């Protein structure tokens, strides 16, 4: 705290508590040999136990006989500079690591088309090393016509600066042709002149195929909408029909969807819904946003009555509306009345939209048909075993039944490939949790469903993907789904291997209990199979 305090202390350059032995010895040697040391940097342990960095200038003052009488010098605190140097070094190392190991192919090319840098991704695409690119020309790697076109565009970009984005196809030495999305950015030298272009590219061949497959899936969904036995509808917040399928129009007593939409029919009309049911439905929608399995009687335009079961929910987005399904249950009601089983109700299935998404995955991946359903069964059983409440179990089941929805973005030939996947193919497979998250996040569903889907391939030790999350950073639903997913996959046949059996599956989760999988969930799963006789039920 003061100069006097320091002078009166026992501090000196000999004390190990202030200067480590290596630095102390080195300083004494330098002073003995050359009388002065300038700019020597070393770590200091201060009187309060904290550490800092100093830069010292020191010289030995000798008497006429040459004997050192005292030492004088200056000490500068360089802790901040050291911290800045350390952060700069870490930043440079992070940038280098990101550049070298980026999932995008990245090159830096000068104005003459010579490669200044290339990362591992782009080099591997050509069967080369990054070092083999440096100093070489673009003409050494791609056809002349493409190189000419690229260089013309480069010169224009360098002339004006900025960035460009575009799609282009590239033919590799193997003859394989793939499509990429490029982002090219001009780089400046110290004089402010644009001297090179950094080009980053992502292989979108699979994505383009996925979009094509998605369009086909949309056509399939539209056909299912048109031909569904259940009535499907969308209703404005003013309770005017936006869209209805043919089945819904038939249930309500109209000859076509257009006739119904153009009619005055809505939820407010007493001639279609009685006062009590109308009031109750509106109250439920206002209080909880959705109604599932609500059974009531409607009066159709021709005067006949029908019993229906309604699922309806409010969707909140840029435009708010209601959507739902309706089933004509008149015959069932008649049967219940005749058999005096009026208290028996049909168990409702998951929302049609969710089921449709699950079916789309299985349509594209027939080898794993039923996988999501069986995983859902095991998830529900584990969740009940560890004591989760009904709401948590239902949300987990919804996540489980569509946990592989992101595979609609994965090319079908990869999903059904009988052999071992290559690194690029496996990389594409690894994108499906993120794609699934993007799809489900846009829907009006509890956030835990999307989080469970994106995290279901994470592992406790951080070895999973896509986020390399560890321990409690992984939500409980995803930890349950991870165990159920592994067990079901191992007991089922896959294109690239036969089923491994239940014993192998349980051995896998027990071996990695606490390392990859949550111990409590592993224990619950083992109890279900070993003590409680759990078995998968085939989907009817």
In short:
This protein has 540 residues and is α+β, with helices and mostly antiparallel strands.
Could you characterize what this model shows?
This protein is of the alpha+beta class and 540 residues long. The chain has helices at residues 3-7, 21-34, 79-101, 120-125, 130-133, 144-160, 205-227, 246-252, 257-261, 275-288, 330-338, 352-364, 371-385, 390-401, 412-415, 423-429, 432-441, 447-455, 476-491, 502-511, 519-530; strands at residues 36-45, 51-62, 68-77, 105-110, 115-118, 163-171, 177-188, 194-203, 231-236, 241-244, 290-299, 305-315, 321-328. It is elongated and about 125 Å long. It starts with a helix and ends in a 10-residue tail after the last helix. The model is unreliable at 341-350 (pLDDT under 50).
Number of E-state strands: 13
Report the major sheet: 5 strands, antiparallel
Q: Determine the structural class based on helices, strands and strand pairing.
A: alpha+beta
Number of helices: 21
- Biggest sheet: strands side by side, in what order? 5-4-8-7-6
Helix content: 40-55%
Distance between the termini: 81 Å
Low-confidence stretches: 341-350
Rg on CA atoms, Å:
35 Å
Question: Can you give keywords for this protein?
Answer:
540 residues; alpha+beta; five-stranded antiparallel β-sheet; 21% strand
Can you lay out the helices and strands and say which pair or pack?
Elements: H1 3-7, H2 21-34, E1 36-45, E2 51-62, E3 68-77, H3 79-101, E4 105-110, E5 115-118, H4 120-125, H5 130-133, H6 144-160, E6 163-171, E7 177-188, E8 194-203, H7 205-227, E9 231-236, E10 241-244, H8 246-252, H9 257-261, H10 275-288, E11 290-299, E12 305-315, E13 321-328, H11 330-338, H12 352-364, H13 371-385, H14 390-401, H15 412-415, H16 423-429, H17 432-441, H18 447-455, H19 476-491, H20 502-511, H21 519-530
Antiparallel strand pairs: 1-2, 2-3, 4-5, 4-8, 6-7, 7-8, 9-10, 9-13, 11-12, 12-13
